[in-house]
């Protein structure tokens, strides 16, 4: 049950009109990543790189939470810091209710920085895996059948 040529031709014609070759469209993951949100991109990294992606993201999350806990418990005025970094006052007030515990406050700030952690994971994991394969620490990927 093969596809008829007429069904695929309009798709490739649209790509050619846009200046994209059919071969590039089939193999270029950057176009696909532009359509995905950060959460979907993170899931894709986890699927493609497995334990390395998950371990890196969990590690960076624990470091982030630790840093923010240390900052809050040391008395750093995190509201002023976050305001200078461009966070809106309404998002800060909703995350930082008066009288919250140090851990809850640190966790709320940690959650505000989730997009930064996700972006770091999405960029870093492929580089880490490529480097580990280059030095022989990981096996090269199995060829697709």
Automatic annotation (TrEMBL):
KW Transmembrane helix (keyword) present: yes
Keywords: Membrane, Transmembrane, Transmembrane helix
Pfam families according to UniProt: FAM210A-B_dom
Name under which the protein is recorded: DUF1279 domain-containing protein
Region listing for Disordered, in residue ranges: 1-37
GO cellular component, one term: mitochondrion
InterPro entries, sorted: FAM210A/B-like (IPR045866), FAM210A/B-like_dom (IPR009688)
PANTHER family for this protein: PROTEIN FAM210B, MITOCHONDRIAL
Domain DUF1279: 40-127
Regions crossing the membrane: 49-72
